[in-house]
Prior knowledge:
Strand order of the largest sheet: 2-3-4-5-6-7-8-9-10-13-14-15-16-17-18-19
CATH superfamily: Porin
CATH topology: Porin
CATH class: Mainly Beta
Low-confidence stretches: 1-21
Order of helices and strands: HEEEEHEEHHEEEEEEEEEEEEE
Structural class: mainly beta
Oligomer: single chain
CATH architecture: Beta Barrel
Strand content: over 45%
Shape: globular
Amino acid sequence: MQHNMKKLIIISCMTMIAFSANAYEYKSGRNNYNISGFGTFGTINSDSQDAVYVNDWRLRGQYEYEIADKQKLGLVYCVDALAEIENQPAHDAFIFGEDENLGRVEFGFTDSIATKLGVGIPDVGGLRLNNYPLLYDKIARSGGVISNTTTNSGRYRLRLNLATVRARPVQYGVSFSSFSNTYDYLTDFGIKYRMPYGKTKLALSIGGSFIDNPNGFTEDIYLPATTANWRGQISSGLNLQYNSIIWGLSARAIYDDSPIGVPSDGITAGTGISYDLLKYSVSASYVFSDTGIWDSDIDDYNAHTGILSLRYKYSKYLDLWISCGATTGTPFIGAGMRVLF
């Protein structure tokens, strides 16, 4: 392990490069164009194997047309590493309409409103802890893991999203979809409360979904497909900030009615805390996943993940980070660089 750690530090310093920013923004009259993205290329080393490369990226484009004061129409197209791995043409591809006094309507391939209004846990590292963590893909595990603590009813789904105005303290919305041969219909809801001003800041969310007759339905890349009478989900998250300290808590439960095959439901929960001091940020995070918990005839699978991360903001355009911890009983360490422009 000591030899592998030394090798990791050398390889990581040479190969980890990332970028994330509003790379391009242009406005002309009523037209507004925006392109943003990030990319990560590097390595991670664990006690069970030599250093392996990680590859993560996203590119997002948005166009808006202002049809009247505080009203606009637009479209979004986003591709990322997960979409490429799953042979999908896009993560997001949808049109939207927005009224700053009423809310927003989205139609197309995009995440549900429960996902979009969800609250994750603090983590300053580069291992994507709140969104299909790279750990579960790069480090060997012996069972299915519920990767996200916020409600998720599937990426790449054609759906309709309705949401109220984001600027208000309470934002809520619903999603609906019946455009698939892997379920009859699905519907989601999400509610978020924000208190963003003062020394003490607060974000609280609740989300849920109902999927009727899932048949070979997949929503998580680290879980087997679901076939059941119906699936129900509920999740809640809390972020509390005081000055430079942020504490977060998030949990999610999934239940399948009369499932067929390998269980892909259960519970997951996580908590974390982060602290900023000048150019440094440090965080400690923990996530627990238990799949198959509702079926007494089958042994459930537990996964514990703990991460300690440090980020150094070298400049406005450059960050350095290192993370260490353990997942599914395997110690690991990762390090990297992020370039912003």
